Amino acid sequence: MDYTFTELTDEQKKYIKATIPYLEKAGVDLTAKFYSNMLEKNEEVRPFFNKAHQATREQPAILAFALLAYAQNIDDLTPLVGFVKQIIIKHTGLQIKPHHYPIVGTNLLETMVEVLGSEVASPPLIEAWATAYGNLAKLLIDGEREIYEQNQWDGFREFEVTSIEDESSDVKSVQFKPKDATQKVQIPQRGQYVGIRFTLDDGTVTTREYSLSSYDTVKNNKYQISVKRDRNGGIVSNFVHDKLRVGDTIKVSPPNGNFVYRHEESKPVLIFTAGIGITPMVSIMQQALESGREVIMHYSNSSVEVRPFTKVLQQLKEKYGKTFTLNEYISQAQEQEGSIKLDKVSNRRIESTDIPSNSVDYDVYLLGPSSYNDVIFGALAQKGVEKSKVATEVFGVYKP
Length: 400
Known about the structure:
Helices cover 38% and strands 18% of the residues. By secondary structure, it is of the alpha/beta class. Residues 154-262 form the FAD-binding FR-type domain.
């Protein structure tokens, strides 16, 4: 189905606005039912979705937000431009294609009738939402096409796992190369990720996105990701740690993502990261240091044992000396033998007082869990750093 843009009439906008109270009250119930219906009936879209995000209702909550925001801004969608760009990036990483959109649209409209009832979800209301969805699909498809046309290959290409190494007690680094030796990897921007499609032991096919944790492997026609074990039932991360073997085949989409090194900046670099959030930071700070820029890194972990990339950080300190400053925070234990101790180790969580008073003079990068990000954003704001000036990204489902 080819979507075309169709101007909504004033009457159609009224119908869409009429759904706002329902979306405010029970939007997540509606979207959770939508996902349940769609995934049950349409096997071809199942690999795109994380079951854990359905169970926690995290994914339905984001879609509910999107529907509500769309309805509230139906007269002028300008405030949603940034959010739409996030969706486009997420979709291209997963390799969402035009033929998937009718599946989503059909199930969404059918679920609206099912949940809202025929009295509320009348034919004119459903027609209005169908037109609005078609316009949004057109916008997303066009944006995604621009990215796809820049990629070196389309869809998922077969790669062979060449090595699996421990980075810490909870993190393994996996390197992989194209199975076809004549094929070359696409050169990523530092900080980008790749989508990986795994076939699990039970035959389930699922997709995850992982940041590239090394830029050096590219010269050997390989990619590297680093995966933290999710001890709360993470199906894919535990598969990588316990089942994935050298020689196995995985399917990989081209590098993607907007969290990248900002070459145009000449300021010194200030990095805040926690746990596995360091993954894309490695190549970013390597490039900054190679370019002669000062790098100050604030790195938080729960313990020394789980902290990845110890050797890499030590090597950078040995090579760049005072140009690279590492402030480490170990939150759940007293100082232990094995702390990097390059510059400063604090046996606590990072606090607002640790944020440099002149942070506004730095090119700032931030990546960690949402609770960590909230603390750092708040502290940076107190130092005069606008949120829009901070390079950041959210893993998992896309968020507003």
